[in-house]
Amino acid sequence: MSKQDKNKPSFSKFGKDFQESLCQLILVDRPFADQIMEVLDENFLELHYLQVFIRLIMDYREKYGVHPTYKIMISVLRASVDEEDAATSQQLRAYFAKIFKTDVSGAEYIKTTALDFCRKQMLKEAMIRSVGLLQRSSFDEIAKVINEALTLGSDTNFGYDYLKDFERRFEIKARAPVTTGWPDIDDICKQGLGKGELGVVVAPTGAGKSMALVHLGAQALKAGKTVIHYTLELGDTIVATRYDSCLTGIPLGDVHSFKEQIYEELQELEGSLIVKEYPTKSASTRTLKNHLERLKVRGIEPDMIIVDYGDLLRPVSAQREKRNELESIYEEMRGLAQENECCVWTASQTNRSGLNAEVITMEAISEAFNKCFVADFIFTVSRTVEDKQNNLGRIFVAKNRNGPDGIVFPIKMDTSRVFIEVLPSGGIDQAVVTTTRDQMDVLREKYSKFKKKKNEEKK
Fold first, then answer.
1. Beta bridge partners of 379
2. Which uninterrupted H or E stretch holds 306?
3. How many angstroms separate the CA atoms of 224 and 270, rounded?
4. How many whole angstroms separate alpha carbon 241 and alpha carbon 210?
5. Which residues in the chain come in under a pLDDT of 50?
6. Per-residue pLDDT, 7
7. What CATH class is the domain 183-458?
8. Cβ atoms 215, 418 nearer than 8 A
9. Residues 229/273, Cβ–Cβ less than 8 Å
10. Which of 76, 136, 311, 400 has the fewest CB atoms nearer than 10 Å to its CB?
């Protein structure tokens, strides 16, 4: 590189990884591409294959008026790569294969730094041009040049552009669902809870909502997922012991007697679990967010976050009424799922009407009914005194964005070993309904028949 070239502004001081990540962000983030392309000179990139890559994106946008996707870029590269020399063609193929499989780390830093650099270069050019204009006393023109330079590269993200983002509507979006471990439940919710989705377990005190959350976490571990379990009510070792029992089938009372056996079985797990304990009402969603950021620094990316349970979180900002605080907490938990691109499971307690109910509907949700609005999947667990004695109960799917709801499943539930099994609907018919009134009428009829049958069997 000549001395003259060295004096040219470029991203060379930021390094190769920075420049490759920047080009990847320009491809995957259309609003950012709109913003930076107002001030980006391809010569700022010191690597020729990256200059070619950006030029191909610019040409496609100019020709078709839409932003390319990964899938489109495969075709664009195939059509254009032969026009380059062998070395550049090979570098382009290797680079695209690399970014196709990985996500950008530190995206916000890269975007902010690159924009700042490009805008400063544009401002420098505007100031140089202004020197000549000053000699001609063209003050209005000077002001116009400087103002244009200052506005270029400003935030242009006004949302999803119906035409420019046309290709994005036809991308296959991966939900990456995490199984519930219950085939019948997975069947109706597209194989589990997906990225950015919030699931809520609703039950009265003592019905086993914490046990249900442990079951969900244990199934994710078996599937090789990373689970972060926040407990606001129980100790971290107590929760971990429940996982021991759920994963091995050893009763909670016998766990300490089978230490070596449990340890050996857990070595076969592909997933990982971190249990973090916070005192009741001491942590907010911001506390959880900060903890997750610290985990990411250590290379721990969650696939599932469990909050046991959401009602015990402290609101970020105090509200006049408790119901408003709970609503905001559940909204923030769903935001947590979206920011971390994982699913979040939590639990909520019913009001008094749910204590002895055979089937708990959403009307029995305690304090804030509006927290149901942001959830993607809600199921209730109901167990009467007789059910508890016989290790039985019912799960009612109260809300399901990805399939049918208003469905009742009988379950076997043994809390002594954290075991929950959803049974086929032969024992209690499924009740698919559209309104609360219909739901109650159908359930009343079906359960009266079920009880009558049971009484006849006893006789």
1. 201, 397
2. strand 304-308
3. 4
4. 13
5. 1-4, 368, 426-436
6. 63
7. alpha beta
8. yes
9. yes
10. 136
